[in-house]
Design a protein that fits this description.
The structure is a homodimer. Chain A is an alpha+beta fold and about 300 residues long. Chain A folds into two domains: about 5-150, 2-Layer Sandwich (60s Ribosomal Protein L30, Chain: A); about 155-309, Phosphoribosyl-aminoimidazole Synthetase, Chain A, domain 2 (Alpha-Beta Complex), CATH 3.90.650.10. Chain A contains nine helices and 14 strands. In chain A, helix 2 runs parallel beside helix 6 (about 195-200). The radius of gyration of chain A is 19 Å and the shape is globular.
């Protein structure tokens, strides 16, 4: 669950290093490296999922272009998307804020309004947090969800021959970020975590993760975790987006998942289309081909995309 | 569990506002307003405690005076102190970092070294986190602990006539911050969370909290939560510290607790002295007197203390 912005800057060794340092303990089913950590409470029929996400001014949002409500919504949506990716139902969140000198009551009010609108809709309780002062607005959210014991979806469960699927259409958030308006922008600022789909996939999918950093990078991660390679065709492209945006643009928060070929996947889940885009195969772990050509894991670099606008 | 730096700047309405907005839900035993939130997993004999704490460069530590190891240790110690205050045993932590431009691998290595030294000693697993880039180094830690079902200590359980106790001697951290050296400085940079004491107090104390913002402010909070007032004598003073530092200096991370007069409290718990400093009484909720004179809740202002050094 240590996320990978640094990894893309050539500092992937930090994630591995922290993982080695972190160790393990009774009750801790899964630690660093997936969308959520898994904790198994003694005697409970449910496992607990935990995910933590930073939202940093200038990196994940800009005050000039994102409303306070958008920032609050997005903060929670990112955490919920991790819960969805593991098949969980959200329970509560903790929200810590380092306030910038410009942060006023009106802005904070809007931030919580946006966050709590999504919280109510998804039955996520705001259970606490911390408030301090910093130089840029920084929010850290922890979301806790539950899943029936042993049923959490992971990245590493795919098997050779499994079909690869994505939900929805990709590239909308990258399109929105580039245009600053339209349906893509709405997708960018108000992503919809695929919670119903995640629960539906619990006993159907072999592996799942959310698309936060771009299909090319995230599929590579799923392949690495499953020690397999993948062959895909072009995924569904968000109307108006380019294929490059669909392949490498981040923050779509759709689900990427695999299922055995015998599992008949419906065409949609609660209105969200499900599309088969390829097949998992043996071969060099992490290698992804698109129409039989190598697909580089360009993924999504928050800092770069924002600086280029 | 929303902490109170803003409260001291006259923005206490935010804590109340967020608390009202936050609502409640099944399994959520206690939300905003205590040291930890309490979650009761279905079917488990244990409740889970959650606390979140920010560590912000320039507010909670300074690069010029605090080593990376100190910052890492302190990050975890603050969270563990909240777990101790509620009688819990720590289980795991999630650590999110917004890295400043100056943050290099060597510093980060030291940060984790300090954090993990305390983690190993207290059997706290590092279970995940997030990494991003910001303008100042900001860390948010979430610590999860367990406590036998229904036995968590809270702030609001004190009754009139209960004896008031503190552990250890107070003012050491404020002394250390003022001097920048000596035993006070060690207390300031390497606080020892009172986990054994917290567990010992589970069925003995009626209310407990940790002393993070100074006795005068924290005792007022305990009184408000218990709807009582308090009469105290001077607490034990850390060698070299002033009475003002012991009363109003923060970050001692000792425990403040109350117990019925019939409970015989030992003089020490695992080498940490326990001292009776007063009595809870009816009267204006939140009012605290020292030697029968009103004690103002001056507490501890991180920003101000650091700016004055």
């Amino acid at each position: 669950m240590v996320k990978h912005e640094l990894a893309k800057s050539g500092e992937i060794q930090w994630v591995d290093r922290i993982r080695r340092l972190a160790g393990n303990a009774p009750g801790m089913e899964l630690g660093i490296g997936d969308d959520c950590a898994i904790f198994r409470p003694r005697g409970s029929p449910e496992d607990l999922l935990f995910t933590t996400d930073l939202l940093i001014e200038g990196t994940h949002f800009r005050r000039e272009t994102h409303s306070a409500e958008d920032a609050g919504w997005k903060t929670l949506a990112r955490g919920l998307s991790d819960i969805a990716a593991m098949g969980g139902a959200p329970r509560f969140c903790l929200v810590s804020l380092a306030l910038a000198p410009w942060t006023d009551t009106r802005w904070l009010d809007g931030f919580y309004r946006g966050l709590l609108r999504l919280a109510r809709r998804t039955r996520t309780v705001l259970a606490g947090g911390d408030i301090g002062r910093g130089r840029v607005f920084t929010c850290d959210i922890v979301v806790c969800g539950t899943v029936p014991r042993g049923q959490a979806l992971r990245r590493g469960g795919a098997r050779a021959g499994d079909a690869i699927y994505v939900s929805g259409a990709l590239g909308g958030s990258a399109l929105g970020l580039a245009r600053g308006t339209g349906k893509g922008w709405k997708r960018h600022v108000r992503p919809e975590p695929r919670l119903a789909l995640g629960r539906f996939l619990r006993r159907r999918a072999t592996a799942a993760m959310d698309l936060s950093d771009g299909l090319s990078l995230d599929l590579r991660r799923l392949c690495l975790a499953s020690r397999l390679s993948a062959r895909i065709e072009p995924p569904p492209v968000f109307p108006g987006a380019t294929l490059a945006q669909a392949l490498h643009g981040g923050e779509d928060y759709e689900l990427l998942f695999t299922a055995p070929p015998r599992v008949r996947m419906p065409r949609a889940c609660e209105g969200v289309p499900l599309t088969r885009i390829g097949t998992m195969s043996r071969g060099r772990p992490g290698a992804v081909t698109l129409n039989d050509e190598s697909l580089p894991p360009l993924g999504y670099d928050h800092l770069k995309l924002i600086a280029n606008r």
